[in-house]
Structure formats: structure tokens, C-alpha cells
Amino acid sequence: DGVVDSGEVESNNLDVKVAESELKTEEKGTEEASARESDSNILDVSSDYPREKHISILRDFADLEKLANIKEDEKKPCPLCSEEKYKACYSHKLYRHLQNFHWKVSVEFEGYRMCICYLPCHPVKPNLIGHQTFSKPGAHYHCIICSATIARRTDMISHINRHVNKGETESRFITAPISKSSLEVLKESATDVRVLPNYSTPQKTDSYFNPKMKLNRQLIFCALAALAEERNPIECLDAFGATGIMGLQWAKHLRSSVRVTINDCNDNSVAMIRENCLLNKMKVKLDTEEEGNGEAMGDGEDITVEVTKMDANVIMHLRSFDFIHLDPYGTSVNYLDSAFRNVRNLGIVSLTSTDISSLYAKAQHVALRHYGCNIVRTEYYKELAARIVIAAVTRAAARCNKGIEVLLAVALEHFVLVVVRVLRGPSPADDSAKKVRYLIHCQWCEERIFQKEGNMVEENPYQQLPCDCHGSMPGKTAVALGPLWSGALFNAGFLRRMYLEAVQYSLDETQSLLKTLVCEAECTKHSSIHTPYDESKQEECGVYIKTLNTSPECFLVHGKRKSDEVIRNSNKRQKSENSAEHPAFYYNIHRHSIKGMNMPKLNKFLNYLSEAGYRVSRTHFDPMGVRTNAPLAQFKTILMKYSTPTYTVGQAEDAEFLEDDRSGVAAAVFTKDYTPHYAAD
Questions:
Q1: Highest mean pLDDT among 31-40, 161-170, 214-223
Q2: 482, 608: one domain
Q3: Are 144 and 223 part of one and the same domain?
């Protein structure tokens, strides 16, 4: 019995030990689970990094020394290298190894250093030699965010940047929601918008905001404000809201004159637009339900902005608007048919195209694919881009039995902006479609002219060009570009109204551009014939050009007002003069300058062309461009006439003085050996 009792006691003791070990493991598991939960909670609330990180992720070099436990009289191994890679050594050698081999090539991220690691946690691909397989550990970095192992340092930097762009800054992809206080708030035209990190790169963020497009937004606002003077209220749509900055500016400044709808197909963008509406104390309307606690502004009127989440084509098919703005990332041709389907009569469609690589003839095959146009790089490539976009707009409007009137076309460094008014009916559609033609461009002298109307094939299309390059040069000298819009690019009356709106809302950057556009739209002609009404001087971009004065005072003759018939005839004459379209395209004065000659100042050259009887103005497309109806041959003749020769250093020493011919013939240079004819007398 004693033996049995002892056996039973031993078995009982074993059972107790097993039970105690199981309890300990269970308690340990629960403690670890609770620790993980607490860690995850900490990660959700704060931005601290995980406590259990790899030993290669350190803050200071002192931490790396502490990890190595360097002692002067003892050999210590490297804590980040395997024994095969680096054997134990004394302190001075180990210090240099840690400094040069691990710390200097580390990747820094918000106070932490991810040092290079040679431990066997990232084995390289095994090499097969004979019947033996060798696999050795490779150099790598440990990601502080997702614990991934990356072999190359440049790849590690890109890997970290991708995490930051996605908002992933916590361990194991446990991402804390970005607090509103951490987001940057930008202000433009008295409108505040909250933007996400990396907001200026469209490939890396949902809510794209480009500060360089401020001028574009101001031009569109002025166009909408000018339309709001015609009808009230108007329904306007920002089809691609992103941060909602454009629609918020419309609603904040125009108030009850507009009913703003901001649309976007991305969930994050829609959420950001709603937050920005509340930030600017506006009410948000979603599916006939108003959200938010927007306070009344101004005269006690609530500003309500409707925010929708749809595809841009869908919302333009379902609803009608007076003003539609399209600003997709890239080309907007995919949305033109939907935009013109339900837009109201005499409404406005504006579109911003940012695919400048294709429009500016850097990717000609893309322009052919998107716009169906054949183009080459020319001196007037920016105006060519604007006419390409308008041609696509015209064809899309004509498919919906609508015509267009171009109000504004701007092509700058980053975008091409086109604003058109919609004219319903088949007759305006036919008239607009007839203005889409091909352009004949000479590749030798860069002379250009639109093809004549008609379907008959000409035997020699080179005869349409004013130049004679085809007869004097071998081979084919001209190319057919297009189809392009051949009509006017500006409406002077509408631009003046836009300028008044820019002055009213203190848009200083836009005022200077609108002044240039008004002058370019009028392209004033110098009149040498005395008309029944007086002439006055108008300043056009720094150049004073005589224009016709139509003020009521000019109709007073010896204290009496002219008869109604004379006034009507004068108005008709003035209307016909102003209704003439501005000349198509422009010439760059540097492109056609004569080698060895100093060309005149641009403003003086404009006066010379105007005195010769041609219409002339500067252009916003090119700071050194001249828009004129003068042929290229006459343009070069006048440029040659008023250019002065450039002299070398030796000739400049012999020349005593340079006398300008005030009559505009040429400058005469007198040297020591030359006696003028009037001096001999």
C-alpha cells in the first residue's frame, strides 16, 4: 500500500504540475493578448511607434553602442551581423564598424534610424552549386511601419514614402485616422480648405489641390460672376471637386446668385468637401437632407452647397445646369458629350485641359488619339492647342444640335482654359461646325493660312499660302494641321465684364491678364482716314494706339447734337469695325529677327506696324509675340527696316556716333574717314 500510495502521490503531483503549467501558459497568453490589445489601442490614439521593434531600428548612435555592449578589454561581436559576416573584435574596431557600416547608411524617418542588418532574417535566393545548396543572409533594412525587409536603401526610402502618402504611419498597417488638427489649412480668395498630405501630387492623393492653378480658378470665377449678372439665380456645377475650393469660392462670394453643386466620384474627396464646407460655415446638402450646423452669414442668408458622389458623366446626363466646369486630370474630351447634353440655352461650359504634353505637340500621337488632330511643333503652338480644344468642343456640341460662341481661350504653362457659350438649335450648330477647318502650315518660313471653305479638291493647295517657299525650295514644304477652330478666340464685351468683376472682388493677378486679353480681342487698327467722329488714344499693353471715340460728347458740333441719322450711321460703322474678328495666330519677333541686326523694342515695333495700317496687339500666348493681320513678308520687311546693324568690337571703336533716323528709315553710322554730304557744304 505504501508503494501504491507513493505512486498515487507522485501521479497527483504530476497532474498538479501539468495543471499549474497549463494555467501559467493560459495566463501568459491572456497577458500577451491584453498587451497586444493595449498596444493597438495606443497606436489608434497616439502616433507613437510600436514598442517591440527590430533591434536595427534605433534613435541615436549611443543606443547602437549600448546594444553592442562595447568594452575596452573584451572582444564583442556585432549585434547586427552574423558570426560568419563579422567576427568578434575589440572595441575600437567594433566602433568603426558600427559607425561606417551600419549608422552612415541608415534610413531616417521621424527621429528613428533604420540601420542595415546582416542577420539571417532576410535570406537571399539560394545558389545551386553541384549537389549543394548555399543560402546566406543578405543585407536588408527593416521597415518601421510594416516590418517588411527591403534589400536596397533607395527601395527602402521609396517604401517609406509610399506609406506616408497613404497615411500609414503605424505598425503592421494599423492606421490611426488623421486628426483634423494635423491637416494643413490653405487659404485662397478668403476661402479656407483643409488638404491632405502631399496634396499637390495627383497620383498620390485623392483630394488634389494645385496652388499654381489659382489664376485658372480666378478666371473661371470671373466668368461665372459675369454670367450671374445676366440671370439670377443660376445652377452651376463643379464636376471634379477634389477639395471643393472652386465651388466654395463661388458660393462664398456670389451667395444667393448661384446654386452650387460640387461633385466627385471618390469617397475621400466627398468627405473632404463636406469638411471644407463646414470649415467655411456653409450647410451641406446631400440627397435633400441638410447636414451640419452652418451659421448664417452676411444678411442672414444661409449658404447651402450640394455635394454629390457620382460619375461626372452621370450627373450631367441626369440634371440641367447653367454653368458647368470640367477640370479632370488630363484631357476632358471624355466628358464633352455629357456636358452639352443638358446644358441650358445661353449657358456656359468651361473646361481646363492639363494634358499639355499632347496639346503642345510633345506627344503628337496622343493628340491624334484624343482629339483627332494632326499637329506639329510651331512657334504658335499655344494658340494651336487652344484651337484644338475648341474644335473638339464644337464637334461635341454639334452632335447635340448646339452651337458655341467662344468667350475666352487661355493657354499658359500648366493648362489650357476654354470658356464657351452654348447656343441651342441646328442653325448655330451648323455655323459653328463650318468654322472647323484645316490649317496649311509652311515648315520653312512658318507662314500659315486656313483652307478655304468648300469640298472641292484644289489642284495645288500650296497656292493658298502667301509665301513662295514651294517654288524656291525642293520637295514638299507645307503640312496640313487640324482640324482646328478657325473663328475668334475672345469676346471683347464679355472680357470687359470679367475685368469689372475682377476689380470688384480685388483679383489683382487676374486683372493684368484680362487687360491683355481685352487688347488682344480688339487688336486695334490705326486709322489714317478722318472719320466724322474724333479719335482718342487707348493704352494697349503699354502702347498708345489711336482708336475711335464713341462718347456722347464727340457727337456735338458747334453746341448742337448731330442728327439721329448721322449717329445711326456712325454706330453702324463703329459696330462693323468692332465686330471684325481678331487676326488668327501671331508671330514671334525673336523667331523672325535678322542675324547681325538689333531689332527694335517690341512696343516701338507695334507702333511701326500700326502706322503701316495693320491691326496689331500683343498676345498672352507669347510675351514676345505680335498678333497682326500683316503677312509674314511685310512683317519681316518692317522688322528689317527698323533694325540696326550689330557691330564687332573693332568696328565699334572706329564708330564715333550713331544717329537715329527719326523718320524711321534706318540708322546711319559715321566713322572718322567718312564725311557726310551736308558737312562738305
A1: 214-223
A2: no
A3: no
Residues 6+ apart with CB under 8 A from 537: 544, 545, 546, 547
Q: Are residues 158 and 221 in the same domain?
A: no
DSSP-derived pairing of the beta strands 616-618 and 625-628: antiparallel
Rounded to an integer, what distance in angstroms lies between the CA atom of residue 27 and that of residue 20?
10
**Percent of all residues in the chain with a pLDDT value above 70, rounded to a whole number:** 71
Residue 292 clears pLDDT 70, i.e. is over it: no
Distance CA 424, CA 605 (A): 43
Closest by CA position to 630, among listed 644, 609, 647, 648 = 609
For 18, other C-beta atoms within 10 Å of its C-beta total: 10
Q: % helix / strand / coil in the chain, to the nearest 5?
A: 40, 20, 40
Alpha carbons 547 and 525: distance in angstroms, whole number: 7
Number of domains in the chain: 3
Lowest mean pLDDT among 210-214, 491-495, 508-512, 545-549: 545-549
Instruction: Please give the residue range of the domain that contains residue 88.
Output: 57-125+136-165
Q: Counting beta carbons within 10 angstroms of the beta carbon of residue 201, is it exposed (0 to 12), middle (13 to 18) or buried (19 or more)? A: exposed
| pLDDT of 276 over the 80 cut | yes
Q: Is 447 helix (H, G, I), strand (E, B) or coil?
A: coil
Pair 387, 441: CB distance under 8 Å: no
Instruction: Give the span between the Cα atoms of 574 and 183, in whole angstroms.
Output: 56
Of 673 and 476, the one with more pLDDT: 476
CA–CA separation, 45 and 672 (whole Å): 89
Cα 160 → chain centroid = 27
Name the amino acid, one letter, at 502: A
Cα gap 346→231, rounded to integer Å? 10
CB 599 within 8 A of CB 492: no
Q: Is residue 333 part of a domain?
A: yes
**DSSP-derived 3-state class of residue 122:** coil
pLDDT at 356: 94
Give the Cβ contact number of residue 578 at 10 Å. Answer: 15
Q: Which residue spans within 416-491 are E strands per DSSP?
A: 416-424, 436-442, 448-450, 478-485
The larger pLDDT score, comparing residue 276 to residue 539, is at: 276
pLDDT band at 427 (very low <50, low <70, confident <90, very high): very high
Q: Which pLDDT belongs to residue 203?
A: 58
Distance of alpha carbon 390 from alpha carbon 418, whole angstroms? 7
Nearest CA to 287 out of 256, 310, 254 is that of 310
Could you tell me if residue 45 is inside a domain? no
Q: What is the pLDDT of residues 572-590, one digit of tens each?
A: 444 443 446 889 999 999 9
